[in-house]
Amino acid sequence: MQRSNLLAGKSELMEEVWVALRECTPVVLGVVPFGITCGIMGLTARMSGLETILMSVFVFAGASQFIGITMLGAGVTGWGIIILTTLLVNLRHLIMGSSLAPYMTRLPFPLQALLAFFLTDEAYALTISRIHKARYSVPYQLTVSTVLYLVWVLATGAGVVLGSYISDPLTWGLDFAMPATFLVLLVP
User: Fold this and answer.
1) How many domains is the chain built from?
2) CA–CA separation, 71 vs 49, rounded Å?
3) Residue 6 located in a structural domain
4) Model pTM?
């Protein structure tokens, strides 16, 4: 009996993973160009390729990264103002996180911390959609978040490589990528 329960649990887990992979694929296709742009823009702001990639590894917040890179490129040298600005931009994560908190209260703290680090607009939207369609699922949220994280870091790395071959990325209008995205979000 226990073995069949274990297999049923594994079957449900794999089903959640496959649903997450299927549902995050269109989002991933939208994340890739921004990750590449982030990598290229890091180089234009005189960050090294390694610094740009490490920013994606440790910050993992596209809007904050674009703002930080833009501020560095503009010559802002005060880390305090860069950190304060990115914290203000990310205040929305408190609201998103608080709406997910009731589902996560029984999770071990390290898992809660990992899911909080992985919280992005895209992961939140997919997770909330899953809650409304079915229920909250840790494997679903963790899969979506991990895929988005890996794709973001790899796309940033691809941007660093691509950016090293482009003589002047600003002529391509890449510096307008993030403001353009926010403008599009304002259009109904």
Assistant:
1) 1
2) 17
3) no
4) 0.85
